[in-house]
């Protein structure tokens, strides 16, 4: 369960399930959870991986994605000012209102203050991905959602003031002097 460079073993296992499971039906969820548990050395924790993945499947944006064009585990990289933004987008959905970025989080969240702090922290990460996608695709990302899978019930949270978060990060990156300095350095 150690947190490493790429998150916890549980988080990696849940993400592994969500990148392959049928979003509409959840078919073979238990088998996928067992496979990912074994891959991450989490024998005996299949139930947890399955529960967390199922909670993500219950999120309204994930349910909507099943019937819309979408991409999972989408690698994105693009220059931004004097930096390069790169990462993996958990889910990108083309909705009638535009592109929506979705990020699954399996962190344990104690209270509403913790939720607000996570949304602020991860909202900035999603804004960076949105800037990279905008540059590569030539269209803006209309919205971003965090799907918090750690509780008893799924919590799907929009990033508040999404356009302002993107604009602020764009301004910071444009003003960064050199690689290794500034907001992402």
Task: Tell me what the structure shows.
The chain is α+β, with helices and mostly antiparallel strands and about 180 residues long. The chain has 6 helices and 5 strands. The chain has helices at about 10-20, 30-40, 45-55, 60-65, 110-135, 160-175, and strands spanning about 70-80, 85-95, 100-105, 140-150, 155-160. Strands 1-2-3-4-5 form a 5-stranded mixed sheet. α1 (about 10-20) runs antiparallel to α2 and α2 (about 30-40) crosses α3. The protein is globular. Residues about 1-5 and about 180-185 have low confidence and may be disordered.
Key phrases:
185 residues, alpha+beta, 5 strands, disordered N terminus, disordered C terminus
C-alpha geometry: globular
Radius of gyration: 17 Å
Main β-sheet, in a few words?
5 strands, mixed
Mean pLDDT: 87
């Amino acid at each position: 369960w150690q947190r490493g460079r790429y998150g916890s073993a549980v988080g990696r296992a849940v993400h592994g399930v969500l990148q392959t499971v049928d979003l509409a039906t959840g078919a073979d969820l238990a088998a996928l959870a067992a496979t990912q548990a074994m891959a991450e050395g989490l024998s005996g924790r299949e139930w947890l991986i399955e529960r967390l993945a199922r909670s993500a499947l219950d999120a309204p944006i994930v349910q909507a994605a099943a019937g819309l064009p979408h991409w999972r585990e989408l690698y994105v990289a693009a220059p931004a000012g004097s930096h390069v933004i790169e990462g993996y987008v958990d889910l990108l959905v083309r909705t009638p209102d535009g592109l929506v970025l979705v990020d699954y989080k399996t962190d344990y969240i104690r209270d509403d203050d913790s939720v607000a702090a996570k949304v602020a922290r991860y909202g900035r990460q999603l804004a960076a991905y949105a800037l990279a996608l905008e540059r590569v695709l030539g269209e803006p990302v209309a919205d971003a959602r965090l799907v918090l899978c750690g509780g008893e019930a799924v919590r799907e949270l929009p990033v508040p003031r999404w356009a302002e978060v993107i604009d602020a990060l764009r301004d910071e990156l444009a003003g960064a002097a050199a690689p290794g300095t500034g907001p992402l350095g």
